[in-house]
Amino acid sequence: MAKVRMGEIIILSGTNGTGKSTVMKKLLEINSRNIVIPANPYDKAWSSFPKLKPKHRFVLDKKDPKQKRQIMDWYIPNLNTFKGTKVLDVTEMEAMDEDPRIIFKYLCHKFNNGGFFVDDYKNYIHSAGTLPNYVTRIFRDRRHRMLDIFMASHSLSDVNGEFIQFNPKLLIFKVTRTLTQSVKDKFENHKELDQVIARVKKKARTNPYYHELFIPNPL
After folding, report:
1. Whether the Cβ atoms of residue 19 and residue 173 lie closer than 8 Å to each other
2. What per-residue confidence (pLDDT) applies to 104?
3. What is the pTM of this model?
4. How distant, in Å, are the alpha carbons of 22, 52, 104, 161, 191 from that of 217?
């Protein structure tokens, strides 16, 4: 019988050095295959894992009415057949002045059956405004696509308000910034969030890796 996934969305939020990457590595065990999008190509937290390198080709531009113009198309071979954990390597893209968000969009459309990890997701998803369709789609269809999604950020201000409709779970690590009113407005139960933040900050004095689970706007 095939494994049935809950289609979790877990957002880890906290400042540097609080253990977010360590917890994310433990979460790799949930799935037999994972793709990790590191904070940047030089992120040492993921350096021990094998790399997954995008490739490029030239294809006809569908927007060209004469169907003669060619454009560069980035893709990942064997994306849905590799085993284990792979870390996305975009150094070639950056060397060619290509925007890594191109391959992030590709992954949102194409990756299925595994864990989808985004370390420091503000590099790819804006904290305010309407979510891109491809982001909304991967959140909405995650159960059918057999995906668990894990995203890390340094601040709760990075949490786009539209995330909340997809019932994410937040792991709160020590944060240094006080919640602004614009952040509080994203959470109906922001008073409870204030309490969790205060409790984590207090316990982090003796255990810098302490964190707690917070459920935004529970039904």
Report:
1. yes
2. 96
3. 0.91
4. 27, 37, 28, 11, 11
Cα separation, 198 vs 205, whole angstroms: 11
Please return the burial class of 173, using the count of CB atoms within 10 Å of its CB with bins 0-12, 13-18 and 19+.
buried
In DSSP notation, the chain reads -PPPP---EEEEE--TTSSHHHHHHHHGGGSSEEEEE-SSTT-GGGTTSPEE--EEEEEE-TT-TTS--EEEEEE-TTTTT--EEEEE--HHHHHTT--THHHHHHHHHH--SEEEEEESGGGTS-SSSPPPHHHHHHHHTTTTTTEEEEEEES-GGGS-GGGGGG--EEEE----SPPPHHHHTT-TTHHHHHHHHHHHHHHTTT-TT--EEE-SS--
Residue with tokens 């070639």: 92
Pairwise CA distance, residues 152 & 154, whole Å: 7
pLDDT for the residue 101: 93
Read off the pLDDT of residues 143-200 as tens digits, 9 standing for 90 and up: 999 999 999 999 999 999 999 999 999 999 999 878 888 888 889 899 999 999 999 9
Chain mean position to CA 190: 23
Sequence-ordered list of residues with C-beta below 8 angstroms from that of 79, at least 6 positions apart, any chain:
35, 107, 110, 111
